[in-house]
Amino acid sequence: MIPRYASFGPRSLPGLRAPSSFPRPLPASRYQPRWRLTQRAWESTTTGDGKTGHIDAAPNESILWIDNLFPLKLSGLLRAPWSSPDRDLSELMKRFENSTLGALDPINMVKRAIPQSAPVKVTEILPRLKDGGAFVKFTYPANVPAKEIESSVLKSLEEKPVKPFFSPWRGVQAGLVQGIPWLEDLHRFPKDRLRVEFVPKNPGEEAVELSQETLYSLFRRYGKIAEITSQPWDSKVLPKFAYVDFAYVRDAILVRNCLHGFVVPEELGGGKLGTRLRMSYEQRAKPHRIWEWMTNHPRIVIPILVALLTGLTVIIFDPIRSFFVKAHVTRKFRLSNSRLYRWLRKQTSDILSFRREKGDQAGLDAVWTHRKDLIDQIQKWLMETAETFIVIQGPRGSGKKELVMEQALKGRSNVLVIDCKPIVEARGESATIKKMASAVGYRPIFSYANSLSSMADLAVQSTTGVKAGFSETLESQLQKILQTTAGALTEIGVSNRNKTDSDASLPVDAYLEAHPERRPVVVIDNFLHKGDANTIVYDKVAEWAAALVQNNVAHVIFLTDDSSYSKSLSKSLPDRIFRQAALGDLSPDVAKRFILSHISTHDEQPQPEPTDDDSTDSTEKQPQPPALPDLSELDECIGTLGGRLTDLEFLARRLKAGQNPKQAVEEITAQSASEILKMFLLPGRSTGDGEHRWSAEQAWYLIKSLSATEALRYNEVLLHGAFSSSITAPDGEAALEGLANAELVTVKSGLGGRPAQIAAGRPVYQAAFRLLAQDKVLSAKMDIAVLTELAKAEGKNIDKAEAELALLGGLPKQPSQMAGRTAYLLGKIESAQKKVEGYEKEIGVLKGVLGSEY
To answer: pLDDT per residue over 539-595, tens digit each?
Structure first.
């Protein structure tokens, strides 16, 4: 509910307030509370005669509209509850007749606007705060026309303009009301556009749509007209209307109050019966020329917006992301680097230590002692200024990462490790970008925004025909992340430079070239983890690493399992020779020392001292450690297991658990055989969707062949029918590459880097292959599968030869030149038939094995 305020009303406005000397009939009425009246918020100060909203005039009366008496900004006060409008209006006439009026009083301006020589007598004043003026009703002699009185008022205002204090440039205007003004108190406020509707004079009659010339002749005398817009010719809207736009709002107000309800006669173009004008204010839509130009020229605006957004992103987010990358590399905000954490770890080292960790560290110490020369060599390379890569190559489980991170880079700060494995294995571009950003500490990252921008770019391209450039490709996103990382690494390298140094004035690249010990180290792990998957990541990382090395920003160390890494890295640094180190399996002597070092920590575990209370039954309360196994068979077991570091750690843990070496190796071999069986030999392991490019029959051929010999010739394997005539995986080289990536086998290079030999993927797999080959049921089942596929391949050869023979037999004449071809095809059919018969014979024998063995 709107509150009532006693001070609101026409008399409370400046100039409308009655002077204090004005006589009042009853003194008590002056102090009567205003809120006792029954006025409502929707009632106006002037509603016309009989509260109908219209003013009635006698035959000898006319109405004059006096404009520019009140500021239009006061129209908002109409929403407040006014009080006692009847008494206010009656007091206005008393004040009009009073001679003591202030210069700023609106009633004074009304009195000054009407010349004293005019033969008129003002009978009523109806102020209109919303329109900023007032209606003045007056009487005049019958022999004086109202037009003459209007002319005298206009001439007087022209000679002696009356200007209010709030409008020093525009004076008071006046106009004779020729129509029937509508004194509504709705919340419809004046606008510079009028909607002029053409309605009949009396209901049921016809009205005439006035032309623009007629409207101009009627309205122009009241003010400057900006535009007249007629109703469209095909419009069905009734009544007919036209829009009249004025240059000033005051002119529109003057026209509406003077001509609303005016009947245009026939001589002025209103038709035989006349046409009444009904006017209302209309909100004119302002022309947004800048916005229209932008929407009409998307090919110019959209690239500009993209450039602005990109620049804003660079200005705001790039410094933040560079800060997070530097914090990630320097480990500045990590809890493990705080003094409190290191003190607590030192104080609780005995409580939180585990025998397993001590054993692992002792075993690794034996390996590092063996590889001390390689560790020293890597550290020397890091002190040189050579612009080249350092590549550490070795099979999985050979300890490459531990060698570099725990030994070669031990105690060195500013080390960045990028693991390519989770980045390459990520599903989708957004996940790849997120993993790459996480690897270098690049944040904030809006990986989902790439999908949204792609949809926006597609929508813009479909509507405008021009690609907006909102979306970025995976390549550009990776490039942006790596560039920001390179900038952060450069800042880290020169962060410790002092102005007092002798070479402080050197450029950044020259300073870092002179101080290789201050360059950060970038370790790229699992490079070429899956060389056939997401190669764009490897290419971008290699190009970025080459730029770091060539600009002396950082040292780069690649850790890879792929022996053909030079093909990929040579694209980035074609004129450099890589500093490389190959890690193979440990020799039997080193492997034995490694295992013994693990086991030797078993006796060094501190035993708790018995107390007096439990000295009698200490043997029952304290668990006894397992006894050391018999190591007489250790040499033989190491020869079977090989020198792979992960397998040796597995063996050492089993020996510490109390198993003897032979039993532990047998279990490890059986477990490896079970893994090979599940991954390579079970049905459904060969697919055509790119996940696996090999078949189970090809894997079994390699397993069976390698169980009898340590290495196979690469080309000899490709010539075997399981690879050359395979129906499931016809590409033999791709099948071998897939099996090598799955670690079933390893392909060793020969002269010039060409593939020469095929060996087991891990040394323990050699024993696992023999174990699988000794399984008669498995061997018979897989041999049947191989022979069946070979028989199918020979059957296809027979079908092709028979089809060609049928084609030759259909010729009308058999030329002598076809004899050789016919004999060749017949011989081919005979040879293939003999092979099929031999395969079926062997299959029959193998089926007998399946029927007799479990």
So the answer is: 899 999 999 988 889 999 999 887 777 778 888 888 777 888 878 777 777 777 777
458 in the same domain as 550: yes
The CB density around residue 261, as the number of other CB atoms within 10 Å, is 16
Q: What angle do CA 554, 558, 559 make, to 5 degrees?
A: 145
pLDDT attached to residue 364? 65
Res 227: pLDDT? 93
Contacts of 307 (CB under 8 A, 6+ apart): none
Do both 737 and 800 map to the same domain?
no
The closest of 836, 603, 851 to 721, measured between CA atoms, is 836
* 21 found inside a domain: yes
**Residue 346, pLDDT score:** 72
Q: Distance of alpha carbon 505 from its chain centroid, rounded?
A: 42
* Residue carrying the six token digits 């612009």: 387
In this structure, the answer to whether residues 442 and 556 fall within a common structural domain is yes
Give yes or no for a contact between 623 and 632, defined as CB atoms under 8 angstroms apart. Answer: no
Residue type, 45: T
Would you state the pLDDT for residue 632? 64
Quote the radius of gyration of the chain (alpha carbons, Å): 51
Residue 732: per-residue pLDDT = 85
Question: Domain total for the chain?
Answer: 6
The reply to whether 755 and 782 lie within a common domain is no
Tokens 């069946």, located at residue: 788
The answer to whether residue 183 is domain-embedded is no
Domain termination site, one of 524, 551, 582: 582
303 occurs within a structural domain: no
How far are the Cα atoms of 18, 24, 94, 628, 829 from residue 102, in angstroms, in the given order?
11, 19, 14, 119, 128
Chain centroid offset of residue 521 CA: 31
436 and 578 in a single domain? The answer is yes
Pairing of strands 390-393, 579-582: parallel
548, 489 Cβ separation under 8 angstroms? yes
β-bridge pairing 121-128 and 133-139: antiparallel
Residue 614 lies in a domain: no
The answer to whether 281 and 256 have CB atoms below 8 angstroms apart is yes
SS3 241: strand
Sheet containing strand 193-200, edge to edge, reads: 225-230, 241-246, 193-200, 275-282, 263-264
For 588-645, the pLDDT digits (tens) are 777 777 777 767 654 444 444 444 444 444 444 444 555 555 566 677 777 777 777 7
Q: What is the residue whose two structure tokens read 């907006």?
A: 468
Structural domain boundaries enclosing 329? 318-353+384-496+505-582
HEC-encoded secondary structure of 791-828: HHHHHHHHHHHHHHHHHHHCCCCCCCCHHHHHHHHHHH
Residues of the chain where predicted confidence (pLDDT) is lower than 50: 1-45, 78-87, 354-356, 359, 602-623, 687-690
Q: Which of 449, 420, 450 is nearest to 435 (CA)?
A: 420
Find all residues with CB under 8 Å of 812, minimum gap 6, and list them.
none
Q: What is the pLDDT of residue 34?
A: 34
pLDDT given at position 40: 37
CATH code of 684's domain: 1.10.10
Q: Are residues 338 and 446 in the same domain?
A: yes
